[in-house]
């Protein structure tokens, strides 16, 4: 860690991603001014030692490599050499994953936590391996099976599923020819009442012994305990050599019993899958319907593991110990998190209800608005993963274009559709909602996102450090962008004319005090001379300068001063590991998903703006509050989850950069794009914000810069940011709605 021995000594610190970084090597220099013969020598030697100790093949995305002290100091100035001590060494399974990790540290690129390639099975922890098991592995004594999760299964599924099997057993006994299946249902009724600690096996019966075993059964010898076949007196068709598919009992089973049980298991499977943490129950039901219920009944044997030893020659079909596994939030299907998979059908439901039920006969407008807003979350996830996948498999230029084009597509889609609807209805409330959402995104990403990450990360890490220089670059861009965005507002305050709706003389004296309501600065007096001649040119000028400043920031951080984010990606070749990249989504597949998700995002945004009118009209809550909370933060939930995951693994730099990058893009990209859009499609959107938006944004940026000044933080500082954010939300909650809405 960095230490302080005298005033003026600079901190040197490293950040790490604990999941992919088994080791972070930190070096530090001494003295106020670094000397080429001392600090640089130790610095370059430390870099080479890191490379040598890892024993890995190093990937240097920005062209950095292990160098000698002389070459290091020839290539860089003293200031650069001093800052180059900050190194971040990351390990990746393959080149594609290395590119993804490298992109996480690039300014302007979307930060993505999940893997874009399939991780080697041997690199996964035992907890993760258990998530993908097929419930056919017999383990040693794992303790008592009486747990809260198993009892929850009994109350939710076990009792009625067992009762259904008892009824099916009675039906099959009545048919006579289905008696073997009746016995199977009776045994499965006891199994599904409490399946934990029991095993279902498939026992193969040699063909040469089938007739002999059946005759012994007729003589009164039962082989049920020994695992033999069902007695012949219960199944007159058991002598058929062609198999059980030609038995009369099998036909009766497939017509009467199997369809009912498949429907029941399907219901259990879908319900438990949607609950995520009950996915073991979903696997149990799916494997039962697809495998157990289609086997010959004499080959299915249920045993309690504590009572008898499992034969080595028997195939284990099912063996379940726990119904609930809290780690299933990590479960992924083809690289997609299970929550995003479960929310995808909600998108289809939203689109069908929104465009088919246009007259609100099935559902109301608030319900459709809520569904549309929730549907934006999984679509944001798919867009983020598609961008990360394309960037990791492409060169820098393609990755930069994709991130710049689609990085803010979620927010811009909603804003543009809202402005179009407000323009068609001549309702300026939509423009005010968009301004509130822009301010809410800025304030939330500056205060709430890093504050929440600091609090959650601080619970597990007493003190977290981050790259203060990279945070300083983002802070400088935020100051510039906030000043530019609110410059037209400040200009209007100085030169605009204050107009009030109602004024009352309090003292009954013409020279006394007046109490006025609904006051605002009018920019359209004298046929809008002030606005069109002064404010509007200023808005266009700012909208050109802000993207230019963003490009300069990109060039500064990614080209001339890339050492600020200097990282080294190591691809460690362990014995027995295969490092060929098996990507979840190819570039063309990722591009297709990106375009489809963007199209669905546009449709959901259109539905949200279409059905927000009753909420704005009938709600007693301030429209400011709706804009800065629901409309601003819901689309950012996937980014918030990524930030929390980085903070939990002691990589607070990326958590902070997530919020800073979104805030910078709001001011330097999204707002200029909206201004450009109003040129081609006239709307009520003007770059003049209310006083509340100005004060909240400026105060948030100043506070964030103060907190990030020393490059270290704890949960207390995070609590301060979160509490200030909630105080601002309280102000918005009690604030009156915008005038004219």
Automatic annotation (TrEMBL):
Composition bias type Basic and acidic residues, residue spans:
23-35
What residue stretches are annotated with the Inner membrane component domain? Answer: 148-198
Species name for this entry?
Answer: Penelope pileata
Molecular functions (GO terms): calcium:proton antiporter activity
Residue ranges annotated as transmembrane are 151-174, 251-279, 336-357, 369-390, 396-416, 437-460, 472-491, 538-558, 588-608, 654-680, 692-709, 715-735
Regarding the membrane, this protein is recorded as: Multi-pass membrane protein
Source domain of life:
Eukaryota
Please tell me where this protein is predominantly located. membrane
Q: Which GO terms describe its cellular component?
A: endomembrane system; vacuolar membrane
Q: Which locations, inside or outside the cell, does it occupy?
A: Endomembrane system
Query: What taxonomic lineage is listed for the species of origin?
Result: Eukaryota, Metazoa, Chordata, Craniata, Vertebrata
- Enumerate the residue ranges of region (Disordered): 1-35
Signal peptide positions on this chain = none
**Sodium/calcium exchanger membrane region domain boundaries:** 367-486, 590-732
Q: Does the keyword Transport apply?
A: yes
Q: Name one GO biological process term.
A: intracellular calcium ion homeostasis
User: What is the designated name of this protein?
Assistant: VNX1 protein
Q: What Pfam families is this protein classified in?
A: Na_Ca_ex, YccF
Provide this UniProt record's keywords sorted from A to Z: Antiport, Calcium, Calcium transport, Ion transport, Membrane, Phosphoprotein, Transmembrane, Transmembrane helix, Transport
């Amino acid at each position: 860690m960095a230490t302080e021995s005298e005033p003026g000594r600079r901190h040197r610190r490293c950040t790490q991603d604990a999941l992919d970084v088994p080791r972070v090597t930190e070096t530090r220099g001494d003295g106020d001014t670094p000397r080429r013969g001392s600090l640089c020598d130790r610095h370059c030697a430390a870099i080479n030692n890191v490379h040598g100790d890892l024993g890995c093949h190093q990937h240097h995305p920005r062209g950095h490599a292990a160098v000698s002290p002389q070459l290091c100091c020839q290539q860089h100035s003293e200031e650069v050499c001093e800052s180059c001590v900050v190194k971040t060494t990351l390990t990746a399974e393959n080149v594609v994953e290395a590119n993804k990790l490298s992109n996480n540290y690039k300014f302007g690129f979307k930060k993505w936590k999940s893997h874009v390639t399939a991780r080697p099975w041997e690199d996964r922890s035992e907890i993760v391996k258990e998530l993908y098991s097929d419930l056919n592995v017999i383990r040693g004594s794992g303790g008592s099976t009486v747990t809260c999760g198993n009892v929850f299964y009994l109350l939710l599924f076990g009792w009625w599923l067992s009762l259904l099997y008892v009824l099916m057993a009675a039906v099959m006994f009545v048919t006579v020819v289905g008696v073997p299946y009746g016995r199977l249902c009776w045994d499965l009724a006891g199994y599904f009442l409490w399946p934990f600690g029991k095993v279902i096996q498939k026992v193969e019966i040699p063909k040469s012994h089938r007739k002999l075993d059946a005759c012994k059964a007729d003589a009164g010898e039962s082989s049920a305990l020994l695992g033999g076949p069902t007695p012949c007196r219960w199944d007159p068709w058991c002598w058929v050599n062609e198999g059980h598919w030609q038995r009369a009992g099998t036909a009766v089973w497939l017509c009467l019993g199997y369809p009912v049980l498949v429907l029941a298991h399907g219901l259990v499977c879908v319900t438990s899958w949607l609950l995520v943490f009950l996915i073991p129950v979903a696997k149990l039901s799916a494997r039962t319907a697809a495998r157990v219920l289609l086997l010959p009944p004499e080959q299915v044997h249920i045993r309690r593991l504590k009572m008898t030893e499992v034969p080595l020659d028997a195939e284990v079909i099912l063996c379940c110990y726990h119904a609930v596994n809290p780690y299933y939030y990590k479960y992924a299907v083809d690289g997609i998190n299970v929550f995003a998979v479960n929310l995808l059908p909600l998108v289809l439901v939203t689109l069908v209800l929104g465009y088919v039920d246009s007259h609100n006969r099935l559902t109301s407008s608030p319900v459709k608005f809520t569904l549309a807003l929730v549907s934006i979350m999984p679509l944001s996830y798919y867009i983020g993963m598609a961008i990360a996948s394309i960037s990791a498999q492409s060169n820098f230029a393609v990755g930069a274009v994709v991130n710049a084009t689609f990085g803010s597509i979620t927010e811009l889609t909603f804003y543009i559709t809202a402005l179009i609807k407000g323009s068609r209805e001549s309702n300026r409330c939509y423009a005010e909602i968009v301004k509130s959402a822009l301010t809410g995104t800025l304030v939330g990403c500056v205060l709430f996102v890093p504050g929440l990450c600091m609090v959650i990360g601080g619970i597990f890490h007493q003190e977290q450090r981050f790259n203060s220089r990279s945070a300083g670059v983002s802070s400088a861009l935020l100051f510039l962008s906030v000043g530019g965005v609110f410059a037209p507002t400040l200009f209007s305050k100085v030169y605009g004319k204050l107009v009030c709706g109602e004024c009352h003389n309090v003292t009954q004296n013409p020279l006394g005090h007046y109490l006025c309501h609904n006051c605002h600065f009018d920019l359209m007096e004298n046929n809008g001379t002030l606005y069109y001649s002064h404010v509007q040119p200023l808005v266009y000028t700012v909208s050109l300068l802000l993207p230019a400043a963003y490009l300069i920031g990109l060039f500064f951080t990614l080209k001339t001063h890339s050492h600020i984010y200097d990282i080294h990606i190591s691809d460690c070749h362990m014995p027995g590991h295969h490092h060929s990249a098996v990507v979840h989504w190819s570039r063309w597949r990722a591009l297709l998903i990106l375009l489809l998700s963007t199209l669905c995002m546009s449709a959901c945004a259109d539905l949200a703006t279409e059905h927000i009118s009753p909420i704005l009209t009938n709600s007693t809550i301030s429209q400011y509050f709706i804009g800065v909370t629901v409309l601003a933060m819901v689309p950012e939930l996937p980014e918030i989850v990524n930030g929390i995951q980085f903070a939990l693994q002691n990589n607070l730099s990326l958590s902070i950069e997530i919020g800073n990058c979104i805030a910078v893009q709001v001011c330097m990209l999204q707002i200029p794009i909206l201004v450009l859009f109003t040129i081609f499609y006239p709307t009520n959107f003007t770059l003049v914000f209310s006083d509340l938006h100005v004060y909240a944004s400026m105060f948030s940026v100043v506070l964030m810069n103060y907190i990030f000044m020393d490059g270290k933080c704890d949960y207390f500082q995070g609590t301060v940011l979160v509490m200030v954010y909630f105080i601002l939300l309280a102000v918005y909650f009690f604030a009156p709605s915008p005038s004219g809405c």
